[in-house]
Amino acid sequence: MSSLLAASPVDDAEGGWLILTTLALVAVALGSLTVVRYVPANNRLLVSRKGQPPRVAGPGVTAQIPLVSRTRMVSLEPMEIEVVARAVSRDGIALLGMLAVEIAIVDPGLVLDVDDPVEKAATAVEKAVSTTLSAAAMEELGAVRDELEAELAARTSVKTRHWGVAVLSARVREIDARIIAPPGPAPR
Q1: CA angle at residue 76 from 130 to 158, to 5 degrees?
Q2: What is the reported pTM?
Q3: I need a surface site. Which of 85, 115, 136, 143 has the fewest CB within 10 A?
Q4: How far apart are CA 42 and CA 76, in angstroms?
């Protein structure tokens, strides 16, 4: 009876082929789920997977698993954004500052923690411009304009670098002043 239960050498070989064939089919199935992406030289691919720390991939060819990995492509090229800041000067004049600001993503690894780093950088620049304009009087606006162009990028980059973004330069396009009538009694 025991001789009937013992496997012959032919049966073992067929079982081995069955296992190898199954493993090959599983490898092909997993390979078909993998997406190969090309990341250009001035871009990075931000990859996050549940349960693992996020990573930065690229430049070059990278492989991703679509259902497991979430990816976002970011450009490292400098970009120019428009910033409009409103403020009221020390002497009660409404000011509108319009600037062209050049920013760039310098650390893609930090960008993973921020929803929209470009928008956050624009908001930081807007706040810095508003603070500077509100501390000035009307006759100081020429000097304030020069100060903004000279120092705004360095001052703002201190904060934006925590988000992986650097402010490279700021060019003041216009500072518009409007006189606000002081509050008084309502007309009759």
Answers
A1: 35
A2: 0.70
A3: 115
A4: 5
